[in-house]
Amino acid sequence: LKENKMSRVLMGVTTLAALVALSVTAHALSVTNRDSAEHSLRITEGSAERTVMIQPDETLSDVCIKDCTIALEDGEAKQFDGTESVTIKGDNLTTTIEGDDLTTVE
């Protein structure tokens, strides 16, 4: 009886951990490049900064999971909360807000 109860508790904890991991990943910022040229992105999240290249029609997932700043190579930086779907189009960063069309982030 004790083993059966412990088994159920362990299964519950494992399921909860998997759901938490999926929810963090599902809400992380992604960037899609809709331009015909590659772009260099400077991503700052907290005190960490990194530069990544994104090819035409490429999508980068899990770019940041909390507040971050993304700058294109022209130096213009935009702030995001880490849950958006960001698109590069016409050398601009745009974001999709649930239920809305693409709008330029200002």
SSE map:
Layout: H1 2-26, E1 30-33, E2 39-45, E3 48-54, E4 59-60, E5 68-71, E6 77-80, E7 85-89, E8 92-96, E9 102-104
Parallel strand pairs: 1-7
Antiparallel strand pairs: 1-4, 2-3, 2-5, 5-6, 7-8, 8-9
Comma- or semicolon-separated keywords:
106 residues; alpha+beta; five-stranded mixed β-sheet; four-stranded antiparallel β-sheet; 1 helix; 24% helix; 39% strand
Please tell me about this protein's structure.
The structure is a single chain. With 106 residues, this protein is α+β, with helices and mostly antiparallel strands. It has one helix at 2-26, and strands at 30-33, 39-45, 48-54, 59-60, 68-71, 77-80, 85-89, 92-96, 102-104. β2 and β3 (48-54) form a beta hairpin. It is elongated, with a radius of gyration of 18 Å. It starts with a helix and ends with a strand. The model is unreliable at 19-25 and 100-106 (pLDDT under 50).
